[in-house]
Structures are given as C-alpha cells and as structure tokens.
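Summary for the steering committee. The consortium agreed at its last meeting that each partner would contribute one worked example illustrating the joint modelling workflow. Our contribution is presented below. We chose a case with several input lines so that the handling of multiple components could be demonstrated. No manual editing was applied between input and output; the record is shown as generated.
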Amino acid sequence: MAAELTAHDLIEKHRPTLDQALETIRTRAYWSPHPEHPKAYGENGTLSAADGKAAFDALLGRRFDLDQPGTDAWTGGEVSPYGPELGIEYPHPDIDVLLPAMRAAIPAWRDAGAEVRAAVCLEILARISARTHEFAHAVMHTSGQAFMMALQAGGPHAQDRGLEAVTYAYVDQVRTPEAADWSKPQGKRDPLNLRKQFTPVPRGIALLIGCNTFPTWNGYPGLFASLATGNPVLVKPHPRAVLPLALTVRVAREVLAEAGFDPDLVALAAERPGEGIAKTLALRPEVKIIDYTGSTAFGDWLEANARQAQVYTEKAGVNTVVIDSTDNYRGMLANLAFSLSLYSGQMCTTPQNLLIPRDGITTDAGPKTYDEVLGDLSDAVGGLLGDDARASALLGALVNPDVKARLEAAGGLGEVALASRDITHPEFPDAVVRSPVIVKLDGSKPDTESVYLDECFGPVSFAVAVDSTADAVELLRRTIRDKGAMTVGAYTTSADTERALEEVCFEECAQLSLNLTGGVYVNQTAAFSDFHGSGGNPAANAALCDAAFVANRFRVVEVRREA
Amino acid sequence: MAAELTAHDLIEKHRPTLDQALETIRTRAYWSPHPEHPKAYGENGTLSAADGKAAFDALLGRRFDLDQPGTDAWTGGEVSPYGPELGIEYPHPDIDVLLPAMRAAIPAWRDAGAEVRAAVCLEILARISARTHEFAHAVMHTSGQAFMMALQAGGPHAQDRGLEAVTYAYVDQVRTPEAADWSKPQGKRDPLNLRKQFTPVPRGIALLIGCNTFPTWNGYPGLFASLATGNPVLVKPHPRAVLPLALTVRVAREVLAEAGFDPDLVALAAERPGEGIAKTLALRPEVKIIDYTGSTAFGDWLEANARQAQVYTEKAGVNTVVIDSTDNYRGMLANLAFSLSLYSGQMCTTPQNLLIPRDGITTDAGPKTYDEVLGDLSDAVGGLLGDDARASALLGALVNPDVKARLEAAGGLGEVALASRDITHPEFPDAVVRSPVIVKLDGSKPDTESVYLDECFGPVSFAVAVDSTADAVELLRRTIRDKGAMTVGAYTTSADTERALEEVCFEECAQLSLNLTGGVYVNQTAAFSDFHGSGGNPAANAALCDAAFVANRFRVVEVRREA
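What follows is the complete predicted structure of the assembly.
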C-alpha cells in the first residue's frame, strides 16, 4: 500500500520548522510556530473557534473509537470540573494483545531513520495545532483550566514542548553519523580498514502516564521524545483527563497510517474506575521507558519498581519566593498576585511559601512590615479577582474535590491573611471556583515546619515569617534539598542577596526567577528557552526539555565490517 | 595564590586537541593523540621505557602519599599476578572528613565553566600520557596484562577514552548558551524581555568504583566525564589494582592545584582488606554519581540501592560468535584464535560462546564439519601460542585465583576440544599463564544451557553445537536478552543471515562485528569511533562513550531577570 504522505513531502514540509527549532534551542531566543491568539485559527485548514467548539461537542456522549487491536471493553467517566459529564467511552486494552502489536510496529519505524521520524512527529503536531480550539475545550473540561489558558497552555505551549522534544531527539540521534570509514595506520603495513554503520535503535515500548491538570503540556514532551527516537508510545491518561490525550492518540494514529507506518506506534490505555492499570503496565517487560507526572508517592514507586525501564518523573515540590526587598513594590505585588491566582494555584510551578522577614522589607514605597506586605498583597489579589467573570477567567475551576478539601482545611493551619472567596462562574454555575488563601506561619516555630514543608497543591500559600533574609536563604536551601522545587522566585535589590540565592540554586539545582514585576510569571516557562524544572532536586528527575531527557531513550547499535 | 597554570594558557595549549576530538566524534574516523608505540616516548618531557620502569620501581615498597584531608590509616596489599608483592600503602579515608572537603571544592570548579574544565582535564591526560611507560608497569602488575597490552590498553587507549568523555562532556555543556536575551512580542504592547543565564551545575560527588582487569581503561570514561561536568570524583579502586588509579589521582591533584583549583576535586579511597567500602560510599547522600565496572551482583545492588545517585554500570555478559560460513576460513580461524587468547580471555568483550551448526559450515576451503572447525581452530590457537615467550606476551597472567579455578573446572563441563596448556613466563616464573580451553557442548540438550548461558570469565570458550544457523540466531537473541552481551561476532557469507543477525542486534541492542578476518578483533573497540557496549542490554546500562553517558552528570540552572 502506497503511503498517502511520502517521506520526501513530509521532510520538505517540516524541515524549515525543524531547522528553526534546532537553531532556537541553541540561542534560546523567543520563537514559536504555534499561534497563541484564538483568532489566529480558522483559516488554512485550521478550526475556527466555532468549528472547534462544534468538534468538541460532537465528541460528547459517545464512544471514542481508535481502531486499536485488543480492545476488550469500553470505559470512561470524565466529569468536567465545570459541571457537565462528558459521557465519552474509550477503548480499554487487552494489553496481551496490544503490547505485541505495538512491538511489531518497531522495525519499520526504526528503519525510517531520525529525519523521517521527526517529520512525521511534526505533521502530528501540525494537525493538533490546526485543531487547537477543539483541544482547548477538551483541556478545559478535564483540567478545569479557564478557556484561554486551556487554549494556550493546552494548545500552542504544549505543541511547542512537543516540538522541542522532537528537536532534541533529532539532534541527539544524528550526532553520530549513519556510517563511517575507519582507517588506522599500521606503520609500514597496510592500514586497518573498517566500514562502520551506526543505527539509533529504540529501547522498546514507552509508557506515558498523564496527569489531570496539564494532560497535553506535561504529556507531549515524553510522548514526542519517545516517538521521535523510535519507540512506540502507550498513552495512559489520568482517568479524569482522558479526552485531550485520546484526541492526540487519534491524530497520531491517522498521520502514522497515512505516512505508511503502523498506527499502533501510538495507542491509548484507558482504565476502568479504580483499576490502577499504570502499575500493571509499568512493570511489563516490554515497557522500557516511562514518563510520569503526578504524586511523589507513585513517582517514587515507579523509580523503585519499574527497574526494566528508564523512568522520567515530575513529582511534587514546594516552591518558594524569597521576599527581601524591591525597587518596584507595586509591580512585585501585581506579579505575585497573578502567580498565586493563575489556574487556582494548581500548577506544579505555583509558589507556595512566601518567605518574608518578620521585621519587614525595604521597597521603593518605603519600608513595609511583614503584615503590610501581606495586606498589600491581599489587596492586589482582591483587585485582580474582584469581578467574578474576570476572576473565573483567571482562576478556572478546582480540578477535583481533594483540592477543595485542602483549601477548606488551610484556614485552620494558621492565621488567615487573605481568605478564599467563593466565586460564581458566569457560564458554569456548578463549577467550584475559589480565590486563593494566604495563611500566616511563624518560621521560627518548629511545629509550623511540617505545614509549610509539605506540598499543599491548590490555591493555598503560606506567608512564612523568617528572622532575616539569610534565614530565608537557608530555609530555601533546605526546602529544595528535602522537598524539591520546580521554581524559585525572589525579590531583592541587594547584589549580595542575589549572589546568595544563585549559589543556593546552583548547589541545590533549582530554576530561579529574580525580581519579576511585569508580564512574565515565575510559574510560566517558554519552550525552546526556559527549562521546566531542573531534574536535579526531588521535585523531578528530568527537566523539560534537554539532552538528558532524550539521550537515553534510544541506543546506538554499531555494525562493523572489514572494508 | 596565583595559579601556575592559567586558564588562558591551558585553553591555548589544549583547544586544538579538543577541537579535533569534537570533529572525530562526529565523523568517527580514526584518530588518537596518544601514541601506541613504546618507542614514541622518551622525548618532549615524556618518560622513556627505562625512566618509566625506574619510576615504577621507585613506587614499590613504600607509602603512596596524596596529601588528602582525612587520612586515618594506611592500607594496601597488592600482589602482582606476575608474582611480586608491590608493598605499597595508600591513604585510607575518614570519609566524614574527606567528603565535605570534596564538596567544598565544587563552587570554584563549577564557576570555571566547561571550557576551562575541559582544558584542565586535557592537561591531566597529557601528563598521564607522558608517563605511559610508568603506568604500563602499574597496569601490568595489577591486572596481569602482558606489558605491551598494559602499555597500549592501559595507556593511550585509556587516555583516548578519557579524552572522549571530556569531549562529550564539553559539547553537551555548551549546547545551551551561557546567556540569552528573550523577547516575546505582545502585539501592540511592548514585548516581554528577559535576560537568562544558564549554568551547568554538577550533581555532587562522583564515585568511581574501579575494576581489577582494566583499572584505567574502564575507569577513565567515568572519571573524566564526571570531572569535566563539574563533579568532584572519589576514586575507589579494586583492592588488587590500586596503583594505576592512585597514580591517576596524584597527577589529577597536581594539575588541579597548579591550575588554582582545590586538589580535593579528585581523591582516592583505598580500603582495608575485606572492608567493602564501596557499599558504604555508594549510599552516602553526597554521592550523586556512580561509575562501576564489575560483577552483575554488585552492579544490580548499586542500581537498586544507590537511589540518590545516577548509576552507570558495566556488568557481566555472555558474548557470542555465530559461525555460519566464511569466504576466508584461515582468516577467520586466525582472528578467532587471537580473540580467544588475548589477555587470557579476561576481557569483558572476549567471545565465550561459539555457535556452530552441528552439520558444519561452508568455507572457501570447502565444507567443514563442526569437529573440523574446532580442530582447525584449536590448531590456530596452538600455533599462535606454541612458543612460551610469545604466548606469555599475548596471554598475560591470570588475574586472580578465581579465574584459575574456573579454567580448571571447565574441563569437567563437557568434552574438551582444546585443552589449556600451562605456560612458563620467561621473566616471571611465578606468574600463572594458561592458554585457553575450548569445551564442546550440545545446544539441544537443556542441561547444557545453564553452563553456556553463565558468564565464565577467563580463558574458557564453549563451542555450542546448534541445529542450524537460524537456531544460532535465536540463541543469540535469547543470550543477549537474558544475559547481556558486550560484543557479538558473526561469520557468514549469506546476506540473509547478515540481515537476521543485524535485526537481532538492533532489537536486543548489541554491537555486531561481522566477518573479521584481519587485524581488528571483536574484543577491541577504538575511542572516538566504536561504542563500548550498547547500554541497552543487561551487560551494561551505559555505553562508552556517548551523550547519554554524560548528559545526566550535570543539570542546567537558569537564572532569569527582566531585561
């Protein structure tokens, strides 16, 4: 059967994008081929806002067929954090049928080579990009993200991260040539001559274990890094956030088939309620790579038990902002207020602990006491979220009842500096929308440590009073070392304090944002430029996206012969 | 204190070598800056044969001081496999003193940057290279390698592997720029501008656990990969092979101090008899990287238990040669005879199982039965090793009593095709020198599998009779998958068989040498061109040397500020 998409055409179409991506991961300047603006879609074969919404609506209340081998049942029970049941059923796999089918797909995909694989991956991403509006609704109604964030973070930003992974995968595979002629002089005798061929080979089946809050953004790096290095990818979505990854699998299978490859290179593993299929899959001998985003407990379990696989984990952490001093007090407050509010603090990068000297800080608006800082920050949050419609568009909905329970319990953990407010979503009255709570804790009291050194995922921050900035720096060090951190923020006008903060982040391996007062927030990273996490502290054993994230997903097999 | 070696001078001196190495790992053509010929040494500050021998002799029978912090005792008991006791005592570490001293050395080494670190590493290698003759005696009298092999494999080839590791470390650290200006357009509003700085940071202390047979060759890749990426390296040599690595540590400490860095960036951890210090060190929280060569049992223990560290292991494997057919029968026999004999089969790359169809093979010298092949191979080995002096120069000495015991037991495992011969070393009558044994086994008998699927390290090969070449290919697959393999060799004139062998090696991830009949042997690999192992089967979880071997020894910490 002739492929509808030839390798030549795919390479011709996507090589310029790949080349620009290759250049950008070297310069780390700004670049993205995926538009952020909702109105950028609707032409050139891309779905408009209305068409995207219609496409999403058409998925609801029915089976989502993928034509995978080994489907033994149908399962699904997603309920939108905004209220509606999605009513979609997905294929449940008989893994003894599905895994062998995926393995059988390997040789042709491996033999296609790195460039063809990259081009096929870019075609998959291009088709996903064209359906960004459809994905936006899918992400919104599984993660609880507000629509605009679901469109941007779940769409172009996730696609960027996928492309970034393809780019690293490509460059790492082609750094060894396909063949070499080796000739070793032997003095007066004839040289020794060998012809050597080098083939990047995949490890085996890659398992992607998706998360509830960022199914595409956190899923695409591992998915595309594995696929681009030749591995079939089995996608096990979070049971509350199946749809965005099911759509992804469907697009990938379509493109693979059109390009003449076995669509079983990408498959979905939806699970029955309470089945815990991830544990079963993770220990299968065919599974050689695992990408996981989620709780520390299961991440640690995977690292300890899935010994046959390369395991890449992003787990829990405790993110800190050190507040020492600022020359832009209003900017600092506005920036922090936004960071704490965005998606109700349900980002792995949201600050949790604000370390503030109990004697206050210096600012361009004069000295501010600890309580004044909290009062002003609370006012900033209040102003940002004063209008319910605007607040809903920033906060989104709480993703699940656990987050709501943590939020409600937070008031009992200390004195409340800013209380959470119950917000009515203008369109979805059943959505649970809450503004963030800020709780005061005294860092010098030993019994508070067990509170603020625990990840409290959701819209809960702790304003930890410390004796001095030096104390804050040491607490930061201990927090990163013991609990991990995806992000560190700090505000200071002191060069010495900056240097001390940098040294802690170098030694404990955490990413540092200094004095952000404008439109960039500590919880946001940009593909091709920022690393997401460091891979060097307990919050994650890998960074998105770098050489270490891709280099061990394939191996190079050498065949040598006398020339 | 001003450094005697400035960064500028070191870079000027070594940058051309680094550039050539960078080019060579891309082309994988032949190159080495380290001469193989013994007579190449003696000028330009390098030790001649006589001076190298004198330098080695001067080390014997005394303390080997390294001026390390935290030396609480002196220990050592090396006995040359050639007979003499070395009588050298090494510092035994108080690790609660030594490890903090090593950690304290990190910041300045990190801040020096990738290029300075590479240049310092190249200076260390250059000084080691200049003392190649001294190292040759140290390797010979700890590993039992014959002098010429000790000089070449323990000298220039090991130095090449170290340089290769520095090269990969350098290129992977500089692929992210030191700084970037990021400017994201915001439509009609001002763009978002950030200044980003990227710093490669080390993981922590790296532990190198050396082996008995190739202390420098197997040790240098990990040592230099870790050091070049900013990590201090604690060298824990095999208790029978301390001297080559102690010399290495001494040279490294000298160069580091002269270049203005803390010499404690490289330190030795010699152990008391039976102390098992590797287990203690491997679990220390300061130890973040471990490189290990040795038994599967301890390698598996490290991987399972040293969870705080990145663990790179080379363990046991079972290497296979499939003998299907050849158009150069004499060449094949000569090549195999040499491979089986070199260093008494005490290489992790030596073939163990020769899979030969029981109905024989086709050759340019006519069809040969299974027994004829073994007879002719035995004759080839006999011819190669007929003269005791020449045999000693190829075989070296058995490295320890365990190898001798295995060799002596091998005769009871099956019918002996070629018996081992006791050889008298012309210079060292106490050396245990033995020619290899070849034992016949019937692959169709289930009880033989437990024999040939076990690594029998030393000069023991099994000639496994198989029903067909197809059976051999399947047995090869099972051997790699279940036991691992550092090398695979094969002889065939059939394109179909070549393709089947390649497919097995791609799928099970093993390095394949086809139809070697000349002066390159399956058990030899060349730095900058060949990979050593694949990192993808149970024999090793890493290959020497590739991007995956270095990429996770450092992380990149980003500091970003508004521009």
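The radius of gyration of chain A is 25 Å. The longest helix of chain A spans residues 7-27.
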